[in-house]
């Protein structure tokens, strides 16, 4: 279709400081370092995408994404933006991996396709506003007293669930959770995320069993992702349900984990899956296997997180949302997009497409390249 031919693609570096360091077992994060893709068609449609690369998870940085994006842009220019499968296959043909920057192009293409169809992106994906979305709020890794104070504040702010970063020695992580439970009480929904920090199956089992008394909903990625063959043993021995995160990048990872009966939950992220195309395959596999699903992210702005929220509305098996990181930014570069309501509620945009853009003032001052 000549009208939907991709006419231009622009890449921008989006750099935003965080209010305070966000610490996980893989190390501290001090600032947002993302890449934004803006794609325009001959008939004036504009699609936006964003990725938040993570060196220790998807092996990408803002600089690698900016460079690899310059391989993608000339290859897609002149193609039909509505040929989603063909465009995304071209990205895979050009380079293996690089799921983060691929996700930004995937989101921009889906934004254009949904705008062209006149549908909100979740509806274009076959979803419905069948449920209210609510995000949890994450407590960064640190001393027990600081983690307790943050958890109490998040509870007072009305977040329906609190997620806690762990991944240290057994006695330290138990002390952290004991302090948090002393602050928020025994029943407020509590989730934990080790980010592979307990490393081995035996160590993870010991920590999980020690935490069993604290009424924890689930634990994300307790062991090194390379040890996924051991995850079923951890799940069988753990009093806390296990969610695969770093070990579940694409649909092939999901299929392996399901076949191994490795976990009870899967965490889907657009930046791990290369975007909607593969994320929806993961969701369908998880749904068919009877697993509970979560959609999360890295350090995306409300633009990338709005894309994640559209994904969360596309499949009823997606029950948990982890969309809190934009609340950690010192500034908000996004126009439109979802809004945070009371109690962690996510209020979605109602117009066609993604419904989110980056403010022109932010784009003008960003490092950029145009095709």
Automatic annotation (TrEMBL):
Pfam families on file: MR_MLE_C, MR_MLE_N
Keyword Oxidoreductase attached: no
CDD domains (alphabetical): L-Ala-DL-Glu_epimerase
Keywords (A to Z) from UniProt: Isomerase, Magnesium, Metal-binding
Family statement: Belongs to the mandelate racemase/muconate lactonizing enzyme family.
PANTHER family: O-SUCCINYLBENZOATE SYNTHASE, O-SUCCINYLBENZOATE SYNTHASE-RELATED
Protein name: Dipeptide epimerase
